[in-house]
Design brief:
With about 200 residues, the protein is mainly α. The chain has ten helices and no strands.
């Protein structure tokens, strides 16, 4: 068991080295050798943990996603009350935006993985797998909100869930390009949520 823990710790250290490269100069031209140098180890040692760049990217992406999920849980717990469907949806969406250094780096790692997945059918299949689960999470919360009269019943929960995912992706891109500040992006997100959670009796 100790050996396994140490193995995972080394993989996380390599992932953190990859994040540093992502946040400073991008991953487009970064090689396994570059990441090994950033992590302070030989290429051969790095390849003991990751055989390919795609394998390393995927682990780094899942690791940083787990940290994002932890932040989302903590933000919901910080409410100090039973969260409403809107609370849960908003916390998830805000957690998807690159609002600080860690979440910005996570988004950049995701972009690097996305770029490779576009040209690799196997990677593309893997990248697609998380979307239905996220859409399902949002759609379930929207259905609860419909039952509670917070969202109009005639809305399609699955379609609205996909719109939310697309909104977060678009706002994230514009934050990185300095089209919007993080604060403006959150404001636009809240504006859309106000229109969505407008109540069953709204026009």
């Amino acid at each position: 068991m100790p050996k396994k823990v140490d193995h995972e710790a080394r993989r996380r250290e390599i992932s953190e080295a990859l994040w540093r490269i992502a946040s400073t100069r991008g991953l487009e031209g970064a090689s396994l050798r570059d990441v090994a140098a950033e992590a302070g180890m030989s290429l051969g040692r790095l390849q003991h943990y990751f055989r390919t760049k795609d394998e390393m990217l995927l682990f780094a992406l899942r690791y940083i996603e787990s940290l994002a999920q932890q932040r989302i849980r903590e933000s919901i717990e910080a409410l100090g009350r039973e969260p409403t469907p809107r609370d849960i949806v908003r916390a998830c969406l805000v957690g998807m935006l690159p609002l600080d250094e860690q979440s910005r780096t996570g988004f950049l790692v995701g972009v690097a993985h996305f770029h490779r997945a576009v040209h690799d059918p196997a990677l593309r299949t893997g990248a697609q797998e998380g979307i239905p689960a996220l859409r399902g999470l949002f759609a379930d919360q929207l259905r609860k909100a419909m039952e509670q009269g917070e969202v109009r019943a005639e809305r399609d929960a699955d379609d609205e869930a996909m719109v939310l995912i697309c909104l977060a992706d678009g706002l994230s891109t514009y934050i990185l390009l300095d089209v919007h500040t993080p604060e403006k992006a959150v404001q636009l997100l809240d504006m859309h949520l106000s229109q969505l959670f407008d109540g069953a009796g709204a026009r």
